[in-house]
UniProtKB/TrEMBL annotation:
InterPro entries with a match to the protein in the record: HSQ_synthase_HpnC, Isoprenoid_synthase_dom_sf, Squ/phyt_synthse, Trans_IPPS_bact-type, Trans_IPPS_HH
NCBIfam families for this protein: HpnC
PANTHER family: BIFUNCTIONAL LYCOPENE CYCLASE/PHYTOENE SYNTHASE (PTHR31480)
Protein name, per record: Squalene synthase HpnC
GO molecular function, one term: squalene synthase [NAD(P)H] activity
Residues annotated as transmembrane: none
Length: 297
């Protein structure tokens, strides 16, 4: 049977998600099957926009112009007037319409990608949090909206988890972000206060920067405490997925916290046995709550 244009658009997004899923929950076997296709479309949108911002050697002006094309497509989708041929936006228009997704969340993501093009240092922690509000939180909110109608508490818990996960990722990748993208997400004002130079982020011995990093770890932990019970209020496989992602983040943060002060820039990685342990402990709300409470004390 010949595929329609919409079917081909969905297939394009699904192929991209299966080949490049990275940390996005699109490939998770825990997800409800009904959500995998729309999530693959959201992933394709975010992945390609992120690549525009980060990949290759195009000048800033070109990157911003290409991202503005994405903004224009979102405006057209909002006005139900998209007539382009990009399979990502053909499929995205259908997903947004079927699930009544807030366009503002996609615009927030684009705002963060545009910021990636022009900003690579953050003056204070509030600036970092503002970035996370647009780079991470929309993803969690979109998952909840795909699943139904989340209440305000669930949205706030989702924001706390997503921001915490983003911060944990930053603290895992300090060297990589600095050497590959010339980005530093450690607040500049706090680096100055602690007499930390950028070159200190590449030193093998991290005792000098340990007090600041441990303070940042604690802030991520405090955010996780605010949101970690979200997965116990969401029913079915999505609740299991949220619990697993949360416990994975909590476990990674615990590994960061437990590292020796002289060796904080070694990237901790969860092993297969640990991942299986996380999935099993997330299957039951009671078991998850007990494990998370223990690690977040």
């Amino acid at each position: 049977m010949k595929q329609t244009k919409l079917q081909k658009a969905y297939q394009f997004c699904q192929n991209m998600a299966q080949n490049h899923y990275e940390n996005f929950p699109v490939a998770s076997k825990l997800l409800p099957s009904k959500l995998r296709l729309p999530i693959s479309v959201i992933y394709a949108f975010a992945r390609t926009a992120d690549d525009i911002a980060d990949e290759g050697d195009a000048p800033q002006e070109t990157r911003l112009e290409e991202l503005e094309i994405y903004s224009k497509a979102l405006t057209d989708i909002k006005n139900q007037s998209y007539s382009g041929k990009d399979p990502i936006f053909i499929a995205l228009a259908d997903v947004i319409d079927k699930h009544d997704l807030p366009i503002a969340l996609f615009n927030d993501l684009l705002s963060a990608f545009k910021q990636d093009v022009v900003q690579n240092r953050y003056y204070n922690f509030e600036e970092v949090l503002d970035y996370c509000t647009r780079s991470a939180n929309p993803v969690g909110r979109l998952l909840l909206h795909l699943n139904g109608e989340p209440n305000q508490q669930q949205l706030e818990q989702s924001d706390a988890i997503c921001t915490a996960l983003q911060l944990i990722n930053f603290y895992q990748d300090i060297i990589q972000d600095y050497t590959e993208q010339d980005r530093i997400y450690i607040p500049q004002d706090e680096m100055v206060s602690e007499n930390i130079q950028e070159a200190d982020l590449l030193q093998a011995d991290t005792q000098h920067i340990a007090p600041l990093l441990k303070s940042l770890y604690q802030r991520a932990k405090d955010l996780m405490k605010v949101g970690y019970l979200l997965g116990t209020s969401v029913k079915g496989r999505l609740g299991w997925e949220i619990r697993a992602m949360s416990l994975g983040g909590i476990s990674t943060l615990q590994m960061l916290i437990e590292q020796d002060d002289s060796n904080l820039l070694t990237r901790p990685r969860l092993q297969k046995k640990q991942l299986l342990f996380i999935v099993l402990n997330s299957a039951s709300c009671m078991r998850y709550r007990k494990k998370a409470n223990l690690m977040l004390r």
